[in-house]
Amino acid sequence: MEEKRGRCRNGRLKALEKSLTDFMILQKAREMESKNRTVITEFILLGLTQSRDMQLLVFVLILIFYFIILPGNFLIVFTIRSDPGLTAPLYFFLGNLAFLDASYSFIVAPRMLVDFLSEKKVISYRGCITQLFFLHFLGGGEGLLLVVMAFDRYIAICRPLHYSTVMNPRACYAMLLALWLGGFVHSIVQVVLILRLPFCGPNQLDNFFCDVPQVIKLACTDTFVVELLMVFNSGLMTLLCFLGLLTSYAVILCRIRGSSSEGKNKAVSTCTTHIIVMFLMFGPGIFIYTRPFRAFPADKVVSLFHTVIFPLLNPVIYTLRNQEVKTSMKKVFNKHMA
Known about the structure:
By secondary structure, the protein is an all-alpha fold. It is built from eleven helices and three strands.
């Protein structure tokens, strides 16, 4: 009986030793695998196109926008800040839109211009994350600003008697603070999700800047859940804002359609301008972020207009359709040129 127990004890000890040996072998294999993995410290940008002629055309186009339209955006900000007659909430938010768009245009375009002249387009991991953060921080803030501007027009047109009470200076600054905080939260969620992903190669980004869809494709893990969170955070928010704005402007236009007041044409012009900017802002965003992260041939072209061209055009569109701002800008220009 004792001999039988001894054999059982020995069998259990041998099984335990075998399990420990297998565990040690597995741990060593995992350690070797982790050592063999290369931690990505930089990304190689493949750029907008490989055609030198096309690169030259885009280079010249961006320079034109920078040297002609970008100063116009700063002129809008300066005009609204310096003219006492442009103190209404509409102009307050328009000045902030011009500032946001001008800032947004510095995130991608300058590096893109430098990369056109470089043989190897490289961006560090930290630089990529920083670019991505500010892209969504300012982009999210601008989207929320368009929502605030739609709310301002709704109160002005549909609730004119309550306008001065609802859109008082304190409320305007509170809305401005809220949209900055909203843009920060939207962006930091993106960054935190990407920082948790392991990157061990390859490190080629098929774009001319760092953005969520391209970066998460390079992660060395299953990104299905992360992609869903990204679509929910960027895509769904963009789509809901767009649909909400479209509905609000439809209500406003229906409300003023039967009006015979003197301000009807002005209200229609203002709302039309907002709708144009809304499509320019949210259209590319919906195309890029509301679908699964698969590459399409049009992605780079849409991204170019979304990150460089449209941000500079938005305040200009507002100004060209606003007689008060145009008149004030002429006064400022003539005053400083005289």
